[in-house]
């Protein structure tokens, strides 16, 4: 069974209160695609998922964790680590999330 957050979205990573560990869901779309497609954009997607969860470990609420995740994605785009077409589309998806 896949975990879902309050909005019904599939959870791909999470942290437990009081732990300094980021857990990745092995069946999560981002991790599966990073493994199956080889080096590329989804490696960076997984990196931003981890960054988001690290923000929670540091005490950030969901809105701030999302902001930090989007900022890291922008840095990847500016450094041209990600193709701009798919990268900008993914950034739009990130921006459409609503923090609870």
Placed side by side, the strands forming the largest sheet appear as: 1-2
What share of residues is helical?
A: 55-70%
| Mean model confidence by pLDDT | 91
Structural class comes to mainly alpha
| Total domain count | 1
Give unreliable regions as ranges. Answer: none
Number of strands: 2
Ends apart, CA distance between termini: 23 Å
Cα-atom radius of gyration: 13 Å
Q: In DSSP terms, counting alpha (H) and pi (I) runs of 4 or more, how many helices? A: 4
Strand and helix map with partners:
Layout: E1 13-14, E2 23-24, H1 29-37, H2 41-57, H3 62-78, H4 84-96
Helix pairs in contact: 1-2, 2-3, 3-4
Structure overview:
The chain is built from four helices and two strands. It is mostly helical and 100 residues long. The protein has one domain. It has a two-stranded antiparallel ribbon with strand order 1-2. The chain is globular and about 35 Å long.
Summarize the structure.
This protein is mainly α and 100 residues long. It has helices spanning 29-37, 41-57, 62-78, 84-96, and strands spanning 13-14, 23-24.
Any key phrases for this structure?
4 helices; 100 residues; single chain; globular; two-stranded antiparallel sheet
């Amino acid at each position: 069974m896949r975990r879902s957050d309050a909005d019904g979205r599939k959870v791909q990573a999470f942290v437990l209160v009081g732990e300094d560990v980021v857990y990745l869901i092995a069946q999560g779309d981002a991790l599966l695609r990073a493994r199956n497609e080889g080096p590329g954009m989804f490696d960076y997607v997984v990196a931003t998922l981890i960054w988001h969860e690290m923000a929670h470990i540091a005490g950030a609420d969901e809105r701030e964790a999302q902001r930090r995740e989007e900022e890291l994605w922008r840095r990847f785009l500016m450094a041209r680590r990600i193709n701009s077409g798919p990268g900008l589309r993914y950034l739009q998806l990130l921006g459409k999330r609503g923090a609870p």
